[in-house]
Structure formats: structure tokens, C-alpha cells
Amino acid sequence: MKTELLAPAGDIKCARAALRAGADAIYLGLPAFSARAGAGNFALSEFSETVRLAHLLDAKVYVCLNTLVKESELEAFFESALSAWNLGADALLIQDIFLGKELKRRYPEMVLHLSTQAGCCNVYGAELAKEYGFSRVVLARETPIEDIPAISEIIETEAFVQGALCSSFSGQCYFSSFAGNNSGNRGRCKQPCRKLYSIDRKGFESPAYALSLSDLSVGPRVKELLDAGVTSLKIEGRMRREEYVSAAVHYYRAILAGLKGEIPAWKSALARTYGRGGYTEGLAFGQDNLLSRKVQGHIGERIGTLELKKGKYYCKGIARKGDGFKILRGGEEVGGATCTGEGEGGFYLSSEQKLRAGDEVRITTDTSLAETFRSRSLHLAIWLSLRFVAGEKPQMHCEGYTLTGEEPLQTAERAPLTEDELIRCFQKTDDLPLAPIVEHVETENAFLPKSQLNALRRAFYEGLVAYRTPAREQLAPRTGACTLEPVPSQRTAIIAEDFEGLKADVLILKPRDYARVSPEDVTKGEGEKYLYLPPLLTAADEKLIAPVLPLFDGIFAEGSYGIKLAEKYKKPLFAGAGFNLTNSFAVSNLKAAGAKYFVLSKELSTAEQRKLAAEGAFVLTLGNVKLMDLAYCPFGRTCKSCDRRGEYRLTDEQGRAFPLRRYRLSGKFCRFEVYNCVPLAGYDAGTGALVDASCRSDGAFLLKRAHSPEGALAGATKGHAERSML
Ligand SMILES: [Zn+2]
Predict the structure, then answer these.
(1) CA angle at residue 292 from 291 to 295, to 5 degrees?
(2) Which of 460, 447, 365 shows the shortest CA–CA distance to 409?
(3) DSSP of 489-505
(4) C-alpha–C-alpha distance, residues 639 and 582, integer Å
């Protein structure tokens, strides 16, 4: 299958920029249910226009409906999906895999892609997506390159190649939701990972962008992704400007076409339009240059060092008046500057800050680029054949489409039609994005008044456009009911690192080091024993845990891959809060898939949780709230310098201290989790009560209060108990 280059379209300008630069497909959001609520997004009329243009240019349009959907929003969600489809979307991107299953049940005609927000990172997740009717998965950015071939054999895969990286495993970030009351799972991320934090470890105590990842850019590794079976290369950036979209598409287009001579120039253009932290190849390929601790935001491309010339700031190199710069000193940003004019083999700059000779000058706005991009035409080359012969009906043909005039052409008494006249006439397309090339023209002694010739031309192009952009067959709304029977429960469950002294219906072991789990760990405590599995589970992780799984009664997994994994190992499944269960279709489809227990979304209010409290339901009521899953080490490149401490404190500028828990699964690096700065003590939802003691040693105390959590912990928050996520 042909490789697809997929570009973001935050608004109609970016859509046109992407298509002009040669994207095979674009993805965009409509006003509702888009994971980028802050992007311009598309009104329905703009959307129709964009679909028509894209289809005319042989490009596809994917619509993002990739947020979590609450019970009260289900009808609006199904309506949005249907209208996007009926308006011609080529695929819909969905976060909630269970809701996708319901959508596919109602409308088998729809093409669904599983959003990266669903966290598909292994063959089990891929199998489930395929079984539920998805045609493609957008791989979790943490998926190791060596695991991609096996996934790509199951289902078509799409991988990110460029753009911003989330610090947390996608779909599993609750930082903005709990600490900022705007849910990342609803497209409202306030980007707490881009703020300053200090960590209580030597060398990390001063405030830095401790969780801020550099932008992804995998140009030199594209071949490896293609060899691994990836079908679609995705550029991130629905919040970014059209110049960035243009540059990114040109860059990857040049790589895919093997235009080695063009690659450096486009790479430079891309760095000038947007680049955070000097780029990383991302988690698929390791952890090199992953964090951008010292600088935040766009840092452009290095152009030279600052000199002082006759009391003015000067730099060697090429820039022109109006270009913008960032100035760095010792790797840290000291200010901005603009170009005031050229001269003496370089250019002069002005700045509001006091700069020094030797400062690093990086160009962040290159005003010449916009012109370069706009000079490219947004036109599809088409090849025409024309036959205008006296006595015959005129014939116009283009790639599968033919228009034949109704009347035979008259014989010219004088001045018959010439080839030149026909070519000139058909080169006009009345604003259509077509660039006709008349490949074949035959005319013989024919006469046609100019007005009639023009009318034929217009009819031909109209017909051609209609032929190339057939209207979508309209689907009528179809419904489906889903009733859940709330079943009150007094069950208790606890997540803990050690079962010593614990008694609950379910004990969930969250090991510090998965390689060291022993039979002894499981003999302690009373209750059904489950093994905790994080949202990222690689093939190497599975190898590591497979030998100890028989020790446990069941599997507690934070991702939907757990369904297929539990089937394989013939163990009951406890679906964690990472399943993000927010509506009745999600709960009933999960139950149909055989889950024994499940935790409802921790972003729902207690009132919302009560309505979804079917048999087996749990609600996180007491203890720690996990905000982030980091598949990387925030302390650097290797574990050679690892001090093996179990827990650190991540402190923000307001002095709030968030526990940072270290653990090991497979691989070269430790992994980390960020917990909320305050514990949770919510309400009893009448369901099973889950206690999270991942970073606490008072599990036995908490368990006794699991069903009366109010006031159980000093300084605790109620989380979303009273106020559902935004
Ligand atoms: Zn380590």
C-alpha cells in the first residue's frame, strides 16, 4: 500500500497549505468533540468546501472526534459523527474504542481510525481495534520501533513523525484535569507539562522544564517506520500556523520522494517555522534529546553568533528586515530580536534586552518562507484530449471522464477552429484548482461560435469535478439502546506495592520492579490477587511478566489491550481507570468483552458514576490519584546514574509537591508516574470502592474507610466528585 503523508489542519488556511504542499490526507476537528478545542476547527460549511477541494486533489479528510464522551452527550456525539460522514469525511478518529464499536454497529459503512488518545501500543490493542471494526490505529508515541511490525500485520498503522510530544502516555494524562480543572481528554489541556518544576534530586533542584519534551522529528528514521509496516506518517500540529504545516509537508514529501538535494532546505524551513527544544527522534527510537529542560517553546534554527559593530548588534548570515530571532546564552533564552537591515555580509538586529557578543542567534520567523510557500500552486495537473471535427459531435476527455457535445459541429465556411484556440480556451478553468495540460487535440474544418465553445468548456469542467468528487451516499440516523442496571456493591479493592497486612475483595500488586515479583509477594494479604499493568505494555514487558502471571488470580490493566491479554492468559480482567469509561456504551461493551471488574473514569462526578454502576463497577474513592504515566526517565539518558530511589517530589512554582514514583518494567530505563499533590477522599458512589495506595503506606487504614471516604484524610480533595470534567 502507498505511504500516506498526513497533515494537520487547524483551520481552512492550514488545510489549503497542507494540500498545496502535497499532503495525501489532512485531519481536522469540527466544533464539537475535537481533542484540540483551542484550534480554529471547522464550521460545517468550511468543512464541506475543504472536503470537496481535498477530494478533487485526490486527498483524504479525516475528522477528529477524539475526546471522551459523557452519557449526556451521546446523542450529540452520534449526530456529529453522522454529519461528518455524510458531508464526506473519509474516516473518523475516535478515542473511546467501545463507542467506536457502537458507531460501527450502527453504521457499518463508516471508516474508523483509533485515535492515539486510545493508547494502542501492542498487538493486543490492535487485535481489539480490528475486532471492533476499526480500519486503522494511530500508534501510541511510546510504541517501540521493534514492536510495530507485529502490530502492522494485524491492522493498518499510522505513526507520528513530527510535532509536539505529550509528556504523559496519551489518553492517560489527568494533570490538567485535576490540577487545572480542564481535561486533556476533552481537548482542553492547559499544558502543565510545559511549566517549571524542581525535583528533590541532586542537580535537579532548581526550577526547570522538567517534564517538557522536545518536538518530535524523525526525518532520518522514516525508512525504518516504513520498513516496520507503517502506512501513514502523521504530522502533529492543529494549533500551529500554515507555514509550519507547509514546511513539514514539503520536508517529508522530499524524504518520501528521495529528493536528497531538497531535504536540507526543507529541514531548515521547518526548524524556522516551529521547533521546540532542537528535536528528538522520540520514544519509538530511544530517549535521545527527549527533554528540553532549559528552553520552552519555539527555538528556531541557529544562524550564528552575535557581534557588536559600531555599537550595533550584528550577525553574519542571511536574514532580511522583519525576520525574528531568539537569543540564547549558555543554552538559556535571554530575549528576542528583530532584523533591522542587511549589510557587510550579514544583518543588524535590535532587541529590547541587553545582549552580549557571543550570544547564540536563532531565527524563529523567516519572512521569506511565507512567500516561498504561497508561490506553490494549489492546482491539480490534468491531461486532456479534445476532438473537434466537422460533422462529428465534439469530444472532451480527461482520465475516465468524457463529455460529448449534443450537436455535431458545423463545417467552417471560413476561419475554422484551430488547435491553438482550443488549447487557450481549455486552459481557463474559472477558479477551479485545476492545471489543465492539453495532451492531445484534433480539429478539422469545424466551426463553433466562441460563446458555445466557452459553454462547452464550463460544462466539461463542472462534469469533471462532479465525476472526481462524487457525493457521499447519505446515511439516515440509526439508533441503538443501551441500558445498564446499577447494582449496589460493598466491595473494596486496593492498589499497593506490598500486600502485607491488607485485606480486601481485590488486592492489586503494583511492583516497584516487575523483574523481582516473587511467589512470596502474593502469599501476603487476603483477597483475590491481581497484577497491575500500566498503559504502556511492550512485547518485552509481556515477556517479563508472563512467567509471574500464573501466581495471580487476575490481571488489572490500564489500557484496553488488557481485554485480549487477559483472554490469552485465561485470567479474569479488572479494567483500570485508564480505560476512561465515561458512558453506558463503553461500560456495556466492556462487560460484553468479559471484564469481571472495572473502574469508572476518575474524571466523572459521583452522580455520573452512579448511573454507570453496573455489576463489577468500582470507583476510585480514596488515596492517590495518578496524573501522568511517563515512559521515560526525567533524569537523563541512562540508568547508569540511577539512584534507585522509589519516590521523588516534583514541585511547581506555587510550591505544590507532586509525588513522582519510579518503577521498572523491561527496557533500559526506569518509568515514572506523577501523582496529584493532594490525596483524594471522594464520596461513596454505591459501587465497589477502589483505594490507591501507590505512594502511601497506610493502605490498611484507608481500606477501612473505603466506603466512607469523606473526611478520612486531612488536606484531601474531592477531585471530580462534585464537579465533572470540563
Ligand atoms: Zn533508572
Answers:
(1) 170
(2) 447
(3) ---EEEEES--TT-EEE
(4) 38
Q: Determine the distance separating the centroid of ligand 1 and the alpha carbon of 178, expressed in angstroms.
A: 27
Res. 257 pLDDT band, cuts 50 70 90: very high
Which of 280, 296, 276 is CA-nearest to residue 288? 280
What's the CA-to-centroid distance between 449 and ligand 1, angstroms? Answer: 82
Residue 113: strand pairing partners: 93, 136
**Which candidate, 98, 116, 108, 103, places its Cα nearest to that of 77?**
103
Strands (E), 126-190: 136-138, 156-163
pLDDT digits (tens, 9 = 90+) for 599-614: 999 999 999 999 999 9
Q: Per residue in 471-515, pLDDT tens?
A: 899 999 999 888 899 999 999 999 999 999 999 999 999 999 999
Q: Are strands 626-630 and 671-675 parallel, antiparallel or unpaired?
A: antiparallel
- Taking the CA atoms of the chain, what radius of gyration do you get in angstroms? 30
Q: Are strands 216-217 and 156-163 parallel, antiparallel or unpaired?
A: antiparallel
Report the separation in Å between the CA atom of 493 and the middle of ligand 1, taken as the mean of its atom positions.
29
Strands 680-681 and 617-623: antiparallel
Residues 302-319 have pLDDT tens digits of 999 999 998 999 999 999
- Burial profile 42-54: b = 16 or more Cβ within 10 angstroms, e = fewer: beeebbeebbbbb
Q: Give the tens place of pLDDT for each residue, 205-232.
A: 999 999 999 999 999 999 999 999 999 9
**Cα of 196 to ligand 1 centre, how many Å?**
22
Cα of 206 from ligand 1 centre, angstroms: 20
pLDDT number for residue 162: 97
User: What are the residue ranges of helices labelled H in 469-600?
Assistant: 519-523, 539-545, 561-568, 584-592
SS (H, E, C) 218-263: CHHHHHHHHHCCCCEEEECCCCCCHHHHHHHHHHHHHHHCCCCCCH
Residue entry with cell 482520465: 399
Q: What is the DSSP string of 326-395?
A: EEEETTEEEEEEEEEEEETTEEEEE-SSPP-TT-EEEEEE-HHHHHHHHHS---EEEEEEEEEEBTS--E
pLDDT digits (tens, 9 = 90+) for 426-464: 999 888 889 999 999 999 999 999 999 999 999 999 999
323, pLDDT greater than 90: yes
Q: Are 577 and 545 in contact (CB under 8 A)?
A: no
Distance CA 522, CA 64 (A): 44
**How far, in Å, from the CA of 623 to the mean position of ligand 1?**
26
Q: At what angle do helices 263-273 and 242-256 cross, to 10 degrees?
A: 160
Q: Where are the beta strands (DSSP E) in 132-196?
A: 136-138, 156-163
Contact 58, 77 (CB under 8 A): no
User: What angle in degrees, to the nearest 10, is found between the helix axes of 44-56 and 12-21?
Assistant: 10
φ, ψ at 219 (rounded to 5°): -40, -55
Q: Quick one: pLDDT at residue 638?
A: 65
Structural domains in the chain, sorted by start: 4-165+213-273 (3.20.20.70), 301-375 (2.40.10), 380-468 (no CATH), 492-704 (3.20.20)
Distance 353 CA to ligand 1 centre (A): 40
CA 287 to ligand 1 center in whole angstroms? 13
For the chain, what percent of residues have pLDDT higher than 70? 100
| Cα–ligand 1 centroid distance for 168 (angstroms) | 17
* Side chain identity at residue 562, one-letter code: G
Count of H-run helices and E-run strands, the chain: 19, 36
What is the rounded distance in angstroms from the CA atom of residue 208 to the CA atom of residue 191?
15
236: CA distance to ligand 1 center in Å? 29
**Residue 488: other Cβ atoms inside 10 A:** 12
Task: Give the closest residue to 359 by CA, choosing from 373, 349, 344, 369.
Answer: 349
